Protein: L-lysine 2,3-aminomutase
Amino acid sequence: MIDTATTERREISKISLPGKGQSTLEQTPRREYQSLQHVRPPVSFESLTHGQFPEEEFWRKLPAYADIDRETFLDYKWQSRNSKTSAGRLKKLIGDFAPAEFFTDLEQGLSKAPMALRISPYIISLIDWEDPYNCPLRIQFVPIGNRLLEDHPNTHLDSLNEQGDSPTPGLTHRYFDKALFLPINTCPVYCRFCTRSYSVGMDTEEVSKVSLRVDYERWKKAFEYIESRPELEDIVISGGDAYNLRADQLEEIGLTLLAIPNVRRIRVATKGLAVMPQKILSDKKWLQALTTVGNHARKNHKDMAIHTHFNHPKEMTWISQQALGVLHERGITVRNQAVMQRGVNDEVDTMIQLVRRLSYINVHPYYVYVCDMVSGIEDLRTSLSTALNIEKHVRGSTAGFNTPTFVCDLPGGGGKRSIHSYEYYNQDTGIAVYTAPSVKAGKLFFYFDPIHSLSEQSRLRWSDPVEGQRMLDEAIRESKTSSSTVDLA
Ligand SMILES: *Cc1c(COP(=O)(O)O)cnc(C)c1O
Ligand code: SF4
Structure:
């Protein structure tokens, strides 16, 4: 058990740390080393909060969960059954614990949102209901009317144009040797900022979705396509969320892909670890299916990894630590892809804490994305300059292999680019121009800072389509003259 009492325990020599999914290493006793010369300012153990996962029954703080015992809360079936999918049900659960106007606000938010509501008890109990407006977890999953902002004129529902790069429904082949397979369109929770707002989750008042539900015939076409393309070595199994595949479906997809000679690497993408770690600890069948696929990959000298999606340090608790410990013991690599969002993780300290906390539980921070230009989430987006600044602080704060690459998944389908590699960026108009020579040679791609981050004058210009086009034309001209590396021939 690693908790706030760590300091005390460290002074006792040779203790073992027992417990499920936890290290049994003997810890070196903590001593004072006053005679040594130090080159950096001293650091207290107490300040290293990223490694603290107190084993509290934190959910009991919420009156509705006060009587939920540990065994129940750790049961993924209970978590699924008690996930909330409507404002009414959430209100019934939270009641007076949240400010009175909050639920009216929520209903207004939902009527405009591109994503349906679905939120697990695990996340519900980590939300600060006394101040839900500013809670980084509420912001990600629960839309509220009075915080929504008008969309930038260049947002889209399928911002990355995934459908345009799909040879068969639910398979996107954009890059040379890797493809994205979407076998399912549901998730254990729904994130407001989902890249796949065009297909994931239930229809909303705003959006009827493209259906990519579980369909063996559709899957078969994707497998055939992958097999027909010898250059495809790397397949991302995403969705939706692989957590929602049944164990037998996960195993079937994994083993089928690994049996294709050209496939060398598969990744199972799931946000589940961040929003319902209980599944790893209590769904024996699903864990076994994942382990079977992982072992099969390894025996055949191929690779399977999990890509998950933590966005804020608060999402990691002792339950996540135990779940990640189980995966680590089974030799399963887990990488994280975070999405930068305003009010969630757009501060240097939060991002560094996220990276350190992930690393502590053996999750590699792989990417931090600037928020996609999806409709209905303008309030969540940050400017490119905010991301550039945070990246500068994160790099150098920890091990290089635990330092995420900050990327922009280019609107229109140019693929992911390091945010720093723009050909041109004008902070005044908020237009950044990128090229993607190995993905779509000769084409220019644009990312637009959110309108709320711009000066009054630029905001006005964006409200006029003619001015908007003028700013874009100027950015194109500038990007061609300002950089000698752009070859648009
Ligand atoms: C993100 C993505 C991949 C995987 O890209 P990596 O940079 O290797 O993580 C593959 N295909 C599509 C369409 C993607 O969006
Ligand atoms: S878990 Fe992933 S696919 Fe599902 S809603 Fe969230 S971002 Fe979208």
Q: What stands out?
A: Residues 172, 174-175, 178-180, 236, 416 surround pyridoxal-5'-phosphate (ligand 1) (CB under 6 Å). The longest helix spans residues 465-482. The chain is about 30% helix and 10% strand.
